[in-house]
Amino acid sequence: MTAYMRASEIAKKPVVTLAGDDLGQVKDLVFDASTGSIRCFTLAGRGLLAGPLHRALLWRNVHALGPHAVMVRDESALEKDDRAARFGATEPGGGNVLGVAITTRSGERLGTVTDAVVETGRTPVVAGYEIETDEHRRVLLPVAGPVTVSGERVLVPDATAQYRAGDLSGFGTAAESLRVRLQQDSHEE
Amino acid sequence: MLITKAQGKPVMDLATAETVGTVAACTVTPSPARIVGLRLRTRGRGHHTLEWTDVQSFGPDAVAVEEATRIRDEKTIDRGDHAHPAHDPVGKAILTESGVNKGTVTDIEFDERSGRIRQLLTDQEQIPGDELLGVGSYAVVVTASQ
Amino acid sequence: MEWWSWLIVALAIVLAGAALVVPLQARRRSGGVIAQGRRPREGGGPKP
């Protein structure tokens, strides 16, 4: 079964070693704009006065992403710095997607991104977005097929606009329907 | 024996027949899961630690030590040491290695001869000692059972 | 001023500092969902 999590649920989760020590908490989720797969997390300290740690945790060094914690083997799972998270962010096709507009390829604005939906599994991927529509409604929008992401906007195929879910439990169905639809479309062409 | 039942038992020095403190808590290491240190409440402030290997016997009414001089002040123990109070599991959250919270450790059932841990107890369940992976400052980590 | 009024001033400064720093650090701890474009190529040659 595929499980979905909001990116905001993953952020702030403690990063804990198998020895039971906490190394920090998740700050950013960094994903590949072309495939959607999560590349790494960046970390922040825990506690009221803590700031960012400027250290990255590559996905391949994550032992498990659970509902209550991100588990790693030991402290060596963390990178010495956050270079892995920084590169590409300033290149074309990169940047924070929270707050950017989501637009169909034919130019219809669907809303602004308020959160991302992550499909958990062996390699988690950004499978969709939570958007706030111009009518101030929050809906979950699955993405599939040719999605282009930049720090400016998320461009999705037109068919995406027709598949949405009110909550995470309905997201899987919406994602599946979109996938089927995009397959049919590509057959027809 | 349960650690909550062991709490408050006097620790007596076999050389002087004096009570050097009372059992307050314990520190634990995994593979195999066992008690490695007893945290003692002594006169005055702070805790002191007694290594399990220095315990002569863990009786039903008192704990006997041969060399009370081996009791250390907790403040002098560094973090890497298995007798550091960070390795006290009671009151900590239990996380499986897959990142699922299973509750809080309320008690420990152990063998008073070997110090081996039979079970970690939470309000809901008992987790066998051989599932223990680590006891750290944040949580107790156990293997994800099926 | 009385000696204790300095104490109150000092406490007020500490409180104001905390009231500033705590939300600032909370903001710095909160993150985003960052898309990464192409990985930089080895050697950094010109783009095709």
TrEMBL record, chain A:
InterPro entries linked: Bac_photo_RC_H_C, PRC-brl_dom, PRC_barrel-like_sf
Residue ranges annotated for the PRC-barrel domain, each copy included: 5-54, 96-157
Domain of life: Bacteria
Official protein name in the record: PRC-barrel domain protein
GO cellular component: plasma membrane light-harvesting complex
Coiled coil feature spans: none
One Pfam match: PRC
Automatic annotation (TrEMBL), chain B:
Domain of life (superkingdom): Bacteria
InterPro entries: PRC-brl_dom, PRC_barrel-like_sf
Residue ranges occupied by any PRC-barrel domain in the UniProt entry: 85-123
One Pfam family cited in the UniProt record for this chain: PRC
Gene3D superfamilies named among the record's database cross-references: PRC-barrel domain
Name recorded for this polypeptide: PRC-barrel domain-containing protein
Natural source organism: Streptomyces dysideae
